[in-house]
Amino acid sequence: MNIKQNSTNRKGIAVALAVLLIISAAMVSPAHAQWGKPNWQSDIDWAIGDTGAPDCPWLYAPVPDCLAGGIFSGNTGGNRSCVINHARQLAAQGLDWAAFGLVLITQCHNPPEQQNVAFAGPFAVANYLRYGH
Predict the structure, then answer these.
(1) What CA–CA distance (Å, rounded) separates 46 from 63?
(2) What is the mean pLDDT of residues 73-96?
(3) Which H helix or E strand runs over 4?
(4) Is the pTM of this model over 0.90?
(5) Closest to 79 in 3D by CA, of 100, 53, 61, 59
(6) Are 51 and 65 in contact (CB under 8 A)?
(7) Is 108 exposed, middle or buried (0-12, 13-18, 19+ CB in 10 A)?
(8) 39-59 pLDDT, tens per residue?
(9) Which helix (H) or strand (E) holds 104?
């Protein structure tokens, strides 16, 4: 094998490794919902509309008004919808970690979805709450 063939083989191997790396990164990255929106954003969107009784009431200590609203008012603005509204207020104040913690509460019933939010991180979640994208 001469030097030119050796160089071509190395380039081919490098390209193949790069392609494998890209494919494997895509396989381990969080799944995306329909229309290209990440699942964690769809999870927040879903929580905005959920006003029924909460699944994890012991986690609602930071937002007791949301707990009472979700249990006693039926579909009038309690539970996850209320928690997201509090999270939006915190995000608007620049309290990203606090907003992030509240959003995690909204997914307590579904660990894989809660993990999607956790992987997104406080900054991305707070920006989504602030700007909607």
Answers:
(1) 19
(2) 85
(3) helix 3-28
(4) no
(5) 53
(6) no
(7) middle
(8) 999 999 999 998 888 889 999
(9) helix 96-105
Task: Using the structure block, give the residue that is written with the tokens 């539970």.
Answer: 79
Query: Is 133:44 a contact under the CB 8 Å cutoff?
Result: no
Write the DSSP symbol of residue 91. H
The Cα angle at residue 82 between residues 127 and 120, in degrees rounded to 5: 30
Measured distance CA(38)–CA(50) in Å, rounded = 19
CA distance 66 to 78: 5
Contacts made by residues 55-60, CB under 8 angstroms, sequence distance 24+: 55/108, 55/109, 56/105, 56/108, 56/109, 59/105, 59/108, 60/105
d(CA 40, CA 59): 20
Q: Which amino acid, residue 20?
A: L
DSSP per-residue string spanning 31-52: PB-GGG-BHHHHHHHHHHT--S
Looking at residue 16, the DSSP 8-state letter turns out to be H
Closest alpha carbon to 85 in 64, 99, 101, 105: 99
